[in-house]
Design goal:
Layout lengths: L6 H22 L6 E5 L4 E6 L2 E15 L4 E4 L8 H8 L4 H5 L8 E3 L2 H14 L4 E7 L2 E12 L7
Antiparallel strand pairs: 1-2, 2-3, 3-4, 3-7, 4-5, 6-7
């Protein structure tokens, strides 16, 4: 777990994230789709039922949690995150001053999944997101802050 000087800030962020996650599930059924495709170049993600895109969103990558290694790597430290998306991802370093914790400037840290969610709660607040999607990919959970989440209209009123 994170050692945050202002633990009330972390607790508040986590409580708000839980509410946001519930809203994503309730309004967009974000946890019910067969698959997803995310595009790191432009920061978009599509949630699909079969091959049909049902929900889209923009995202800012936060980082990845490796369950086997019990480690966290910041998105800004990942060579696959480039350009404008990397610039956005790097602003999470500003949380060091707000929290009193140097973890936001260290590329990779030891972490459990709970810590990954705490980090993501702080990032969601920092980026003023609608919630978090933790994309399971090859032994990793790729955490991203979602924005502009919307249903795709397939000729029907949603």
């Amino acid at each position: 777990m994170l050692n945050i000087a202002n633990s009330k800030y972390l607790d508040d962020c986590y409580d708000v994230l839980e509410q946001k996650q519930a809203a994503l599930v309730d309004k967009y059924q974000i946890d019910s789709y067969d698959m997803f495709d995310f595009h790191m170049v432009n920061g978009t993600i599509e949630f699909k039922q079969g091959s049909v895109v049902m929900v889209t969103a923009n995202f800012v990558p936060v980082g990845s949690f490796n369950e086997e290694q019990q480690s966290w790597m910041w998105a800004w430290a990942n060579g696959g995150v480039t350009g404008a998306l990397k610039e956005k991802a790097e602003t999470v370093k500003d949380l060091e001053a707000k929290t009193g914790n140097e973890v936001f400037g260290i590329e990779t840290i030891s972490a459990d999944e709970g810590t990954a969610w705490e980090i993501s709660a702080l990032a969601c607040d920092h980026y003023q997101g609608q919630g978090i999607f933790a994309a399971p990919i090859e032994g990793l959970l790729i955490f991203m802050v979602l924005h502009n989440v919307s249903h795709v209209n397939h000729g029907q009123v949603l």
